[in-house]
């Protein structure tokens, strides 16, 4: 029996998917801050 293990790695996300994830995090942070201040979020999806 082999003493090494192999791990299958998922393919790296495309540049567009990484950009959309970053934009989503930014919008969610903005909405949470607005909600904390009692305002309506300025941006949303």
TrEMBL record:
User: What is the designated name of this protein?
Assistant: MarR family transcriptional regulator
Q: Which organism is it from?
A: Bradyrhizobium campsiandrae
Upper classification of the source organism reads: Bacteria, Pseudomonadati, Pseudomonadota, Alphaproteobacteria, Hyphomicrobiales
């Amino acid at each position: 029996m082999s003493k090494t293990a192999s791990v299958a790695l998922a393919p790296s996300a495309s540049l567009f998917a990484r950009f959309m994830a970053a934009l989503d995090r930014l919008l969610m942070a903005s909405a949470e801050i607005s909600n904390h201040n009692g305002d309506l979020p300025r941006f949303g999806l």
